[in-house]
Each structure stands twice: as C-alpha cells, then as structure tokens.
TrEMBL record, chain A:
It comes from the Bacteria. It comes from Pedobacter helvus. The lineage of its organism: Bacteria, Pseudomonadati, Bacteroidota, Sphingobacteriia, Sphingobacteriales. SUPFAM superfamilies: CO dehydrogenase molybdoprotein N-domain-like (SSF54665), Molybdenum cofactor-binding domain (SSF56003). InterPro entries: Ald_Oxase/Xan_DH_a/b (IPR000674), Ald_Oxase/Xan_DH_a/b_sf (IPR036856), Ald_Oxase/xanthine_DH-like (IPR016208), AldOxase/xan_DH_MoCoBD1 (IPR008274), AldOxase/xan_DH_MoCoBD2 (IPR046867), AldOxase/xan_DH_Mopterin-bd_sf (IPR037165). This is Xanthine dehydrogenase family protein molybdopterin-binding subunit.
UniProtKB/TrEMBL annotation, chain B:
Keywords: FAD, Flavoprotein. The keyword Flavoprotein applies. SMART domains: CO_deh_flav_C. Pfam families: CO_deh_flav_C, FAD_binding_5. It comes from Pedobacter helvus. Residues 1-220 form the FAD-binding PCMH-type domain. The lineage of its organism: Bacteria, Pseudomonadati, Bacteroidota, Sphingobacteriia, Sphingobacteriales. This is FAD binding domain-containing protein. The keyword ATP-binding does not apply.
C-alpha cells in the first residue's frame, strides 16, 4: 500500500499527532512566524575575538543605513534591573550578562544589536559595525586544556577501588568525545512586545513557557503574571530550549529601547554559539571482572568542557551508578573552562557521554573474558534495586529490553571473535549496548473545558517539542473519560494555561499525564454535582464510579442512570464547564527508585579499503512503562537512534586554538545524519505499566533512545574489524588509521 | 547582505556588455548567494544569466556540448549523457542535494569556490579571500585540505564532483569573451593551482562567460565509476573522490583514466597511474599497483595523512567498480 493510498480522515485522526496537520500545512506557527502590528527586527553583532575587553564600538556607518531605529551596545541600552550590578548578575544566573558587560568571553558573543524596520536593513547595518578590543589569551582546545584541571570526587566511593587490582580481567582505557552542537530545524527566535511598562508578551522558542516567564519576571522585576509566553509549536528542542538564552533578553531589551514589538531570530551560524551544545568530554575507565564475569568494580574519571563565565557539569558519571552492580566504585569529575559559549543539556545529557565509555569498556572486557557481551551484561545488571541509593525499583525491565532486542536483530548470528564475516572489501559485525535514565516526574497542572455537545479541550502550559505530548494527552483523556478522540482538543504551550514544568529530562509526559487524570476526575465530580440535582444516585459518586461518553454521564451501576450533557446544560443553565487540577510525585518517591531503560543493537559493515561504515540494521527496545501513544513513542526512539548515529559517526564541532575560534558554523562542515546514513530503525517496547510512577504508568523515553547508541555502533565496528575505536565521532579516517 | 542592483539578460552579449569589476553573473546562485550572505563576495550588481545561455546537451561532430545553463539535475538525467558519458551523471549525483542540483548550473559548478572553513569565516586570515592575510588552514584544521599541488599560500581543495569526471574525460570549456570571440580551454588548463595567487581559482578571462562544456567522443561509456568518500552518506563534500574509466579490449586495458577530488586546488589527474595501467590486464593486482603509484608522492598536512590510504582504497575500489567487481 502506497502512502497516498492510506485512508486518511483529517477530522478523525487515529493516534496521529494532534498538531500534525497544522505543522505540515504550515498553519501552525513557530515563534518567528507570528504577525504582529508594527513589528521591527533586531540583528545581533558578534565579537570577532574570543577573550578581552571592548575598547570602542564604531556604529557610525551602520547608522547611515536607511530604516535603522537604534543600535544597542553595552554603552547604549535599557538597563535590565536584574543585571544592574555584579551581585545581581550573579544572582540572575542568566550566564552571559548580555550588553551589561564590556568583557568578551567567547567569539561571537553579542556586542551590539541593530534594530531596524526590515530584517534586510538590520542585517546590512549589522555587517558595518566594527569594534576595537584589548585582547587577552584565549583557550578553546579542550584536549589541551583538560590536562590543567584536576579531578575531584563525584559522589561517594563504594567499597575499595584498590580491589580492582585483584580482578581476573581488567580493561583500562581513555575515551574522547567531540562537542556536538544544538541545531534543531527551527532556529531559536523571539518576538517581544511590551504591552505596558510592566506588561510583556513573548512569542518564543523554548521548552518551558513558565520557566521563561519566571526568568524575565525576575530580570525586569515585574509580576510573573504580567508576562505572557506563547510557544504553541516548537520545531525541535533536544535540550536547547530548556534554558533562557541571552538573545531572548536582547530581543526584549530591543522592544523596550524602540518601544515597538521586535523580532529576533538567530541565524544558522549564530546557532553554533548561542543555544548550547553537548560539551567535549574526556573519560578514563578502569573496569574489572572475575573469570565468571561478575564485575569487581569500576573507576570512572570524566571531564567536560564549559565556558569561562559559567560552570556546566554534565554529570557524566551519574550513569555509572545506575545500571550495574559495582561493589567497588569510584567516580571523579572536573569541568574545563574554555573561551566558548556555555554548553547545555543535549538529549541524554551526561549519561549519553558516560554510557559510551562504560558500554565500550564492557564490550572490550567481554572479549577478554571470552563471554558474550549480552551474557556479561545480564550477569551484572542491578535488577533488584537502584545500585546507588539502594531503593527497590518500582519497575526495571532492562533485561527484557536486552532479550527482545537480541532476538529481533538475530544476535545468535554474531560471531564471538572479531573479523569473522567478510564480504569482499567489507567486514560485517554486530554490536550492542544498553542505557538507562533516572525516570522523573514533576508537579503539573491541566485544565479541561467542556461544551454542551460533550466536546472537551484539555489544556496545559507545557510545550510539545515534537515528542507527542499533545497526542498522548488526548489518549489519556480519551481513556479516562470515554469521550471520542475526535471530540478532544488539546491546547498547550501558552503561559495563560495551567502551569507545568519544562519539557525535558524525559519528564514531560510523566508529569502532565497525572495532571490530565486529575483534571478528568475533577470534571467527573463537577458533572456529577450537577447530575445529583436531577438524580440522587450521583450524590457522593467517586470519579471511578462515573462514566462519561460523547453524549452524557452515567454511573457504573447496572441501570447506569444516564443523563445527557444537553439535559445537564439546560437544567443548570451552563455555558462552558471549566475545571483545573494539579498532580505530582508523592510518597512513592520515598519507597521506590524509578528508571527508564533501553537496549540498542546494530549490524553494520565496514569497508576495509576506505574506512566507510554502513549501518545495515538498528534495533532499539525500550522500557518506558506503559506506552501511551505508540507512534509518537516509536518516533521518539527512532529519532534518538538517528541522533546516536550522528554522535557515533559524524557530529563534531572543531575548534582552532591559535585563532580562538570554532572552525566552521554551517551545515557544509558540521554533519548530522541524512536519511541515507540510517537504516529503518526497528523499535519495540516492553510496554508494561509502572504502577507507582504516575497514574498512567508511563516512564519518559526521550533520553534512553540515545543513551547507548554510540557504544552499540562502536562495538559493532570492533566485532567487524577488530578495531577498538574510543574517540567519537568515528569518521572514516579513524576507521582507516585505527 | 549588502544592497545590490539586479538585472536579467536574455543574451550572452547583452550580459557581457554589463560586466565590469563590480558586477557578477548569477546563474543558479547556489554558491554565490552564500558568499554574499557571508560578505565574501560583495558585488554591486548582479546580472542574471539564466536565460542568456544554452541549456541543452547537444550532439556535435566531435562529441557533445553541455550548455552552460544546463541544470545539474537535468544533466544527470539527460539521455545523451547517460548513453555516452554516464560517468558525468554518476559524479553529479554524488554531490550536493536534489534541491541544489535543481538550481546549480553546469558552468557554475566549474566556478564554485573552495569550501575551506577559513575561507568562509571572514574573521580569520585567508589568502584566497584576502590576499596577503595568511593561510589559516596550513597549520590549522586541515583535515579536508589538499595533499598535492598546494603552496605555502593556500591548501584549499576544489569542491566539485562534476569537475572530477570532466577532468577524467578530458573535457574542454568554451568561453565567450567580452568582444564576442569564442575560445576553448582544455579542462586541465581551466582550474589553477594556488601558487602565489590563491585568490584566482581558474583561468577564465576577465569579464568572460562560459558558454558550454564539450566532451569529445570516447570509449569509456561502458566501464567507469565514481567513488566518493565523505563524512556521511549524502550531502557532504568529499574527503576524497575518484573518477575512473577503462577502455577494455577483452581483459586488456587499452586506456585508463583516473582523476580525484579532495586532493588539490583543481581536479587531480593520476597520469602516472593511468600510464601504468595502459596495456596491462584489468585485475586487482594491477589496480593495487596503479593505486600505489598514484599515492607515491603525495604530501599530507598535519591532519590529513589519512587521505593517502583512503585514496589508495578509493582508487582500487573505483577501478574494481569499473569491472563491476
């Protein structure tokens, strides 16, 4: 059946994204696409040096360009109260005090902002601005700088690490990963409009409207409720929208300066140094096991890059304390300040980096032990309890992920020794790795509006960054109410709606699901309250006893006591019925530990003559509790796997120490996978509910899809060729010279 | 982007009349627009020549002529090209993306500028962009840079795939100068090595226009291959690429052609390897020997030593693919 033969009814989507049609037809608007009366445009001008002090900024030529409204610099700006002095800057935790300092910390740091009637005028004028600097020494080479920073303990030592020396087999190796830059398809953008001196409206690309609201309320010293943030459609987040970045503040300052609504959209080159990146990392692992494969212990050391004006610690060794039992464990870490913009969370932050080293080392150990890497892992999984805090898992089906994945890929066809399967110039191999993530949940609120015809709108401030939050809310609301999906609309990504946490850290659905369930209960009780006026049977009915349908309310009793919504509405003179409810984690967090997990398998071929790696199959099986929306969940997993291919094989932000610069800032040189690099990702789920994490039993999937992918690929390259490649990305040159 | 004047010409002589030092011709614009956005090219006026030049592949007495305005995707799908010079189509399809190929012109492909990252970053020194400012790549990030034919002034490589095939097939470039005179430049003489004038990519005369690319009839339509190694499977510039073509008589090589991208400032011919293969039996041992001859005198920079074994592998692979091995 061809794609266009599929029966498709726009009005009755079947598990399709609630925002899908709007997105693909262009009706859905991204932040930069809103039309606002009187809108003008701001363009940022970046520093051409990486460290020093601004001595002079020449804006004379820029001012000659027609249509220029104003030029903001650190000498000509509306003062942001929250950045008024050094103490306040520190307290604001914005990172870069944009336009409130003459210091330069990295190349590309905004030193000026042109505001003009048109984008073209602003862009042209921005190109005419020059500056003089007093330069100081800059360092951007992570590999060189990391040697100068000492390690410090990261968490408590377990057992005695010296015991590792008694292990039958040990692996000791170093792993390096290059920085990966955030470049979601939608570039970050803000439209800011001051509705009054203390009232602000923002269309903004981010992963949490309430966080944006709070940040600017504090910076401008105005009530949170005076700031409206709209992020209804988000074209990819991956962590880049979890922080409020300086350019958004710049846009708000521009709107203040010219007293008009202003749009500021980052250019693709600016994206390379404005919205964070997965920092470069160095790791050293010493891992040991007894001859039966039981792990003796692990010593994990890690360093990641950060900026000189902020400290960002990835938490690379967190995952070391999550998946396996290590009776003896020592973790150490350090951050390495560089003259680059501050890194940030990127899908599977920390764990993704740490897991690559651990899972590579385990694979290496399996060959030394002559043990199947699947069997070695199964022997050491911490299935009974969280290996660090000792609490019993609520659920942890990582073993089932491994078993199912092994079966799907045909793991039995893998040769135990490397370089055994040859096809002409190609060598074929299999690899696997696992990943896990502490599964969280936050406090969230949801609202429901119901019409006389039984149609409902479920609302939350939470954004849907492409993860399928909307369709999942619809599914939960449908399951809880019995109302048809076609009568359930979803509204999200607006700070006027019931508050919710940012969408990140695999917490989105886990948090909002409970709020939807709570809101449905509130709706049922409210309806039952009105129904009680017509039928006493509804008095004191509990939500579980109440059934809703497209047409009315009834009770779970033999004679149902059905009352139509129309009758309720007429009798009580109702217009729109509104409820709001909140839900969050509770006592279960003191009883259980929670994790999502996944197993990744791949089969690939390596060309011995050219170094080319071609993935043939990728299988990823996840334990995400109950799967609420299978298509959206599978989409999450396959997208993450493709991100993992990028991390494993091609993504790399190069730097030039002599010039204090990133090398390249476009997609000609920075490679992420294209369709041809990825096979069809075969996704499966354990799909067993976690009874304790939240009412719907689902655990977040966003991170585990990528944690372990890179190691699975590197391990398969070893199985194919006998080359143990420990530095990412594994580009063809490394394969050839390895 | 700086403001500029834009006009359209419907004939070559009309376009040429408008050309001066501050004017640039624009065809597909797939490279020029990027260069303008980054303030590397700063023309005061643009003359759109997309209606001013031939856009067909035509049979000629000697072979074929590819019109300068032939879009890359059209060339790659042209029946004459596919029948007589399939290597050209293979090379085109190994480059860029469908969207870019739909816009890019045949002549423009010859004139695209290097993709050296320092050339594109106006805050860094680059002799090609700003003569005399220095070469950032020679002692910097030069993984993609040249391994042959470079100078202290410039280590950039020419980014085209099409040009590698055209070099292998001994094409020629037909040029109209300002006075309307036509001149034919052999392909190997069209692009330059950097020497002391890295700002000059090629020998196109000032204020002249490429009218067509000609390829003489040849016996390479049956056994040819284009192999491109890159950091991802599609839409990336070559680490190295190889165009190979064999004229066979039974299993004897009558004549061989070998050219590469990602090696030098111009498409690079492996003449000594071609000479070695002439008259030899087409087998793996001879292909390996030819590849070894090709890589013998290459001079890698600090970060691109891998290109030597990669070229060897790519040449062997391309020659084997000529035989469908």
């Amino acid at each position: 059946m061809g794609f266009f033969d599929e029966t498709f009814d726009l009005m009755a989507p079947n598990d399709r994204r609630v925002e899908g049609v709007a997105k693909v037809t262009g009706a859905g608007k991204y932040a930069a696409e809103y039309k606002v009366d009187g809108l003008c445009h701001a363009v940022l001008v970046g520093s051409t040096i990486a460290a020093g002090t601004i001595k002079n900024i020449n804006v004379d030529n820029a001012k000659q360009v027609s249509g220029i409204l104003d030029i903001v610099t650190h000498l000509n700006k509306p003062l942001v109260p929250g950045l008024a002095d050094e103490a306040k800057i520190k307290e604001a935790r914005l990172g870069l005090a944009i336009f409130h300092t003459d210091k330069i910390f990295f190349k590309g740091q905004p030193i000026a902002m042109v505001i003009a009637e048109t984008l073209e005028d602003a862009t042209y004028a921005a190109s005419l601005i020059t500056a003089e600097y007093e330069k100081t020494d800059a360092h951007v080479d992570f590999d060189a700088a990391l040697k100068k920073v000492p390690l410090t303990p990261a968490g408590k030592e377990r057992g005695n690490i010296e015991t590792l020396n008694k292990a039958t087999q040990t692996v000791e190796a170093e792993y390096n990963i290059k920085a990966e830059v955030h470049n979601p398809m939608e570039m970050h953008a803000t439209i800011a409009e001051w509705k009054a001196d203390d009232k602000l409206k923002l269309f903004d690309k981010n992963q949490g409207v309430n966080s944006v609201q709070r940040t600017f309320a504090k910076l401008f010293n105005i009530p949170t409720d005076n700031i409206e943030v709209i992020s209804e459609f988000v074209g990819g987040g991956f962590g880049s929208g979890l922080r409020v970045w300086p350019h958004a503040l710049a846009c708000i300052m521009a709107a203040k300066q010219v007293k008009r609504p202003v749009k500021l959209m980052l250019t693709r080159p600016q994206m390379f140094y404005s919205v964070g990146y997965r920092p470069a990392a160095w790791q050293k692992i010493k891992l040991g096991a007894n001859s039966d494969g039981k792990f003796v212990g692990i010593h994990h050391q890690a360093k990641n890059g950060t900026s000189v004006y902020e400290n960002f610690n990835e938490g690379i060794t967190r995952v070391t304390r999550l998946i396996y039992h290590f009776d003896n464990l020592k973790t150490e870490a350090a951050t390495v300040p560089l003259n680059l913009s501050t890194p940030t969370w990127m899908r599977g932050p920390g764990d993704c980096t740490g897991d690559f080293a651990i899972e590579s080392a385990i694979d290496e150990l399996s060959y030394k032990l002559n043990m199947d890497p699947v069997a070695l892992r199964m022997k050491n999984l911490a299935l009974d309890k969280h290996p660090d805090n000792g609490m019993p898992w609520s659920t942890n089906y990582i073993n089932e992920c491994i078993e199912k994945g092994a079966q799907m890929i045909g793991w039995k066809d893998r040769k135990p020794a490397h370089s055994q399967t040859i096809d002409g110039d190609w060598s074929i191999g299999y690899g696997m790795a696992v990943g896990a993530w502490n599964a969280g949940r936050g406090n969230a609120s949801a609202g429901i509006q119901m019409q006389k015809d039984g149609a409902i709108i479920v609302q939350t401030a939470m954004t849907d960054i492409g993860t399928g939050t909307g369709v999942s809310m619809q599914n939960i609301a449908h399951e809880q109410t019995g109302i048809s999906k076609s009568k359930i609309n979803i509204e999200l990504g607006n700070s006027n709606l019931p508050p919710a946490p940012s969408q990140g850290g695999s917490n989105g659905l886990s948090s909002i699901g409970g709020a939807v369930v709570a809101a449905v209960s509130a709706l049922k009780l409210k309806l039952a309250g009105y129904a009680a006026g017509q039928n006493e049977a509804y008095q004191n009915a509990a939500p579980a006893d109440i059934l809703l349908s497209d047409s009315g309310i009834s009770l779970k009793t033999p004679n149902e006591q059905f009352i139509s919504y129309a009758a309720l509405w007429e009798k009580n003179n109702l217009d729109v019925l509104e409820v709001e409810a909140s839900s969050g984690p509770g006592a279960e967090r003191q009883k259980y530990a929670f994790c999502s997990s996944a197993a990744h398998f791949c089969k690939l071929r390596v060309n011995r003559k050219t170094g080319k790696v071609k993935l043939e199959r990728m299988v990823t099986v996840a334990d995400g509790g109950k799967i609420i929306s299978e298509k959206a969940a599978a989409n999450q997993m396959s997208g993450a796997a493709v991100g993992g291919i990028g991390m494993a094989l091609m993504e790399e932000q190069q730097t030039d120490e002599r010039l204090g610069t990133l090398v390249g800032n476009d997609f000609a040189g920075y490679h992420f996978p294209v369709n041809s690099d990825a096979p069809i990702i075969e996704v499966a789920f354990v799909n067993k509910p976690d009874p304790n994490i939240n009412p719907q039993g689902s655990k977040g999937l966003g991170e585990v899809g990528i944690i372990g992918t890179a190691a699975a690929i590197a391990n398969a390259i070893y199985n194919a060729t006998g080359k143990r490649l420990r530095d990412l990305p594994i580009t063809p040159d490394k394969v050839l010279l390895g | 982007m700086r403001p500029f004047l834009f006009s359209k010409s419907s004939a070559a002589n009309q376009a040429l009349a408008k050309k001066n030092h501050s004017t640039q011709f624009i065809a597909g614009g797939t490279n020029l627009v990027d260069l303008m956005k980054k303030h590397i090219a700063n023309p005061e006026s643009l003359v759109d020549i997309s209606s001013a030049l031939p856009n067909k592949v035509e049979n000629t007495t000697k072979g074929i002529s590819i019109g300068a305005m032939m879009r890359n995707s059209a060339t790659a799908n042209d029946a004459i090209i596919l029948a007589k010079f399939p290597l050209v189509a293979k090379a085109i399809l190994a480059g860029a993306s469908p969207q870019i190929r739909n816009m890019a012109s045949a002549a423009g492909n010859l004139l695209q500028r290097t993709r050296c990252p320092y050339f594109y970053d106006v805050t860094t020194p680059c002799n090609k962009r700003q003569p005399g400012s220095g070469c950032s790549a020679i002692n910097g990030e030069n993984r993609m840079s040249a391994v042959a034919g470079y100078s202290e002034q410039c280590v950039a490589v020419h980014p085209s795939d099409l040009c590698v095939a055209l070099a292998a097939l001994d094409a020629s470039v037909v040029v109209n100068d300002k006075d309307g005179k036509t001149q034919t430049i052999a392909f190997q003489d069209f692009h330059r090595l950097p020497g002391n004038t890295p700002q000059k990519d090629n020998n196109l005369p000032a204020n002249a226009l490429i009218r067509a690319i000609e390829i003489a009839a040849n016996p390479f339509a049956k056994n040819n291959a284009y192999v491109k190694l890159r950091d991802r499977d599609s839409y990336a510039f070559a680490l190295v690429s190889v165009a190979a073509a064999l004229h066979l008589n039974g299993d004897k090589i009558v004549e061989a052609r070998l050219a590469s991208g990602g090696v030098a400032h111009k498409p690079w011919r492996w003449l000594a390897a071609e000479k070695y293969l002439k008259g030899k039996t087409a087998n793996i041992a001879n292909f390996e020997a030819a590849a070894n001859i090709a890589i013998k005198d290459l001079k890698p920079l600090s970060h691109n030593g891998f290109k030597i074994p990669m070229l060897k592998g790519a040449i062997e692979t391309a020659l084997k693919q000529c035989l469908d091995l």
